Amino acid sequence: MYRKYDTSLAAQCSLRRNQTEIDRHGRREDLLMSRREIKSEDNNSVDYSESHITNVLRGLVNCNGEKFNEYLFEFKTMCENVRSTCSNVDMFYEKVQNSLTVKRLLQVLTTADTEMTKNVIISVFINLTFSQACLKQMLDNQLEYIVLPLLSTPHQTNVLWLYANLSGENAETRDSVYSATKETLLQMYQTDCLKASSVELIRLISNFCRFKPHISFEGFDGFFKILMDSLRVSNDNAKCVLSAFLNLVDSDEAVHRYESNILSVIVYGINNSDLELFDIIVNFIGDIVYRTDNYIDTFIQRELMERMITALQVGDENVSKDVLWCLSNIVASNLTSVHNKIEQTGIVKLLIEMLLCNTTANKLRYEVAWCFVNILSILDEEEITRVVQHQNFFEAMKAVTFIQIKRKDEKSSLMEFFLQSVRKILTIGNIHSVNGYNIYASSIEENKLSDIIFSFIDDCELSLDVSEEAREITEKYFCDN
């Protein structure tokens, strides 16, 4: 995670999500961005020639009646298989785009007298959404409005499926679909013509939440209600819903507007045993906590920290990384409830074990270090005297300095707050010294941590502020020994 260099711990924590967004973007986008396609039941591999494709497209445009239907079914099979069997997929989509196929199919869709023909055409459109050019061509020809009446027919599922694919391309396509469908979708839901259990509907609404600039909050409350209604239908629905919330609620205004809903969602996620779903919740909480401390007490009352520790002990690296990012923001809040939970849960002991474990990956160790340092930063004198008594505490502090960090600003940021924690511990050691003997300074020397701090003074990979802090600590506590 990228921590922007800052002299304020609170500011540093609030800006830490930049790299987190990049790291988790892939996993979240896999859930929302993935388009659904209709697979052919024919498993025979066929490589369509250019002349064959041209012939089918020409037949679709020029033929009628039974001959048109023959070409339509053949084209449907092509669309279902082309991405896995055709050696030149781009050529296929380019030929479709340069023909009048899309316009012709839209014309037939509005006049077709059989449900079978309509169903086949919708299936074709679903598979054509894999081509950005074809997708744009469909929207340029008002596809989103032409298929709207079919929401009230047996084709509802496929139409929702098509809308979800269209809206998942970019902000422009999302806006086109949203403008065309919002009133109809909300009205149908209110009259029980749409069900919250429909995964196609939830994916569509989830895609409405994607991309920036976000759609206006005005008029979206009804869709938020649908998401809430679908949350407990299944874990698959919940993951999609939570990912939508994660995209939508990324501003103070959004958090305030949907406060009660957000808390309900988080409580549900905290108590769910599904690890992937919990990971999404952790990211959701992390986004909220970096904006405000207002909800931390509620999260803690719901045993969030205990759930986080359990997740860390499971050992999934991606989940652990997100948990530690979120946890380090929580512990930086300096609330009484946080202080109490740090001691009750034994989180420091677990962090020490993770720092000293040889099998802990470096990128995960980096997250552990930030969580460890943030905890030390908020503990008071009495709490520090208890924490340093943990077995291997000073070995763990030393381990923080061995973490490999490529970027100078990232390394300097961590080492600055680390040295502030060292100074804090040494200051408390002076307060409790006997005949001038600082037991904490002695422990730091015994573990050779003092030598490492001394080396920071001339380390060109660290900032001048870190070097100066290291020099002051060395001169005050270790030069006379």
From TrEMBL:
Q: Which domain of life is it from?
A: Eukaryota
Give GO terms for biological process: protein transport
Keywords of the record: Protein transport, Transport
Query: Which InterPro entries does this entry report, sorted A to Z?
Result: ARM-like (IPR011989), ARM-type_fold (IPR016024)
Family to which the UniProt record says this protein belongs: Belongs to the importin alpha family.
Instruction: Please state what the protein is called.
Output: Importin subunit alpha, putative
The species this protein was found in: Entamoeba invadens IP1
